[in-house]
Amino acid sequence: MNIENSVKERFLRYVKIDTQSDDSSQTNPSTQKQFVLANILVEELHKLGILNAKVNEKCYVTATLEANTNQKLPAIGFIAHLDTSPDMSGENVCPQIVENYDGGNIILDQENEIILSPTDFPELLLYVNQAIITTNGKTLLGADDKAGVAEIMTVLEVLCNNSSIKHGKICICFTPDEEIGQGADFFDVAAFGADYAYTLDGGRLGELEYENFNAAQAQISVQGRNVHPGTALSTMVNAIEIAMEFHNLLPIIQKPQFTTAYEGFFHLHTFNGTVENAEIHYIIRDHDMNLFETKKHFITEAVAFINKKYGKNLVKADIKNQYFNMKEKIEDVFFIVENAKKAMQMANVEPIIQPIRGGTDGARLSFMGLPTPNIFTGGHNYHGKYEFIPIPSMVKAVEVVLNIIKIVQLT
Question: Which one of the listed residues 83, 145, 179, 201 is annotated catalytic?
Fold first, then answer.
């Protein structure tokens, strides 16, 4: 089989299916349209001969490729997510292929002058003379994470058509709702059956990640008092102004736009208010647990300061943890990172080991008993109209997964 044609054609098919998740939904999965891709994948898995493939009522696709050797080998899992981000439309995606990219500007949407330029995105120059898949400037592309889905499916196609590649049990799961932080909510680790796993949910060629942020969200509620502004003297309490005052207590230097690498942040995500009531939502991130706890404590101290200043309990904070740094769970089985690193080197890919300034399903799964570092898919500029993915990077992702399987068989 031709790996490049397989992974490319799968990817182009999958991105045309709208699977956008919805963070305002109260259902699981958050959108029924994720079942469309899920059911297609089950059908494709059955055609490959993996007859145990199924999708459950929560839209988790699972499948197991049984071992084809008597050698005692660990069961390895590979995971990707079905949904695309709510940040931009995933409906009517029209991918464009730029053959032999020449290093110049790529016109995505001529009418609206939407241009993918190496001036704005210099990483484009890494892929001169390669074929690149882009958007048409009107939607996201969906490489996050349909590239991961296509790559895993292509790996399974290779294994099902080539019995000379010996392997232990291979466990597969395609999850819903990862983009809204719910991808692991109904993941059954015991039923999955893997000793450890990898998510294919990273970015550029070579990314290998086993550290991520500790994450929390903080919902700040401000109760004001609205009266007619003509008679407001000593009676009006403007909730919007108090919310702004609260925000200004947070350290400016710890905003996302001023941080990098291991530096954490407070990110003001939404702000809604009237004189009577205001609601502000933050996400809190830090790789270091002590600094993470300090940030959460800072929020509670800022609330206490405002309430003391006004002599009333005008401000309340609801702080909830979301996920934690998987590093502490990965370190005990660090050979799985070393295997991935070696697999990349075998594919002539330079490993780029760096902390994730975000989270993956693997972060939560690692704390659920399934150590799960993250591997590149090849995509760039996720969640927006400037998203793109080089086809050779997807081919390399397939090669890396196959190499991981081969390494395990040889050790």
Answer: 83
Domain made up of 214-323: CATH architecture: 2-Layer Sandwich (3.30)
Q: Which residues of 298-337 are buried (b: 16+ CB within 10 A; e: fewer)?
A: bbeebbeebeeeeeeebbebebeebbbbbbebbeeeeebb
- pLDDT tens digits, residue range 113-125? 999 999 999 999 9
Has 178 been annotated as catalytic? Answer: yes
pTM for this entry: 0.89
Taking the C-alpha atoms of residue 165 and residue 162, their distance in angstroms, rounded to an integer, is: 6
Catalytic residue chosen out of the listed positions 178, 179, 207, 286: 178
CATH architecture assignment, domain 3-211+325-410: 3-Layer(aba) Sandwich (3.40)
Order across the sheet with 265-273: list the strands: 265-273, 277-286, 214-223, 315-323
Span 35-74, pLDDT tens digits? 999 999 999 999 999 999 999 999 999 999 999 999 999 9
The domain spans of the chain are: 3-211+325-410, 214-323
Q: Is there a contact between 395 and 102 (Cβ–Cβ < 8 Å)?
A: no
Is 83 designated active site?
A: yes
> For residue 92, how many C-alpha atoms fall within 13 Å in the half-sphere facing its CB?
3
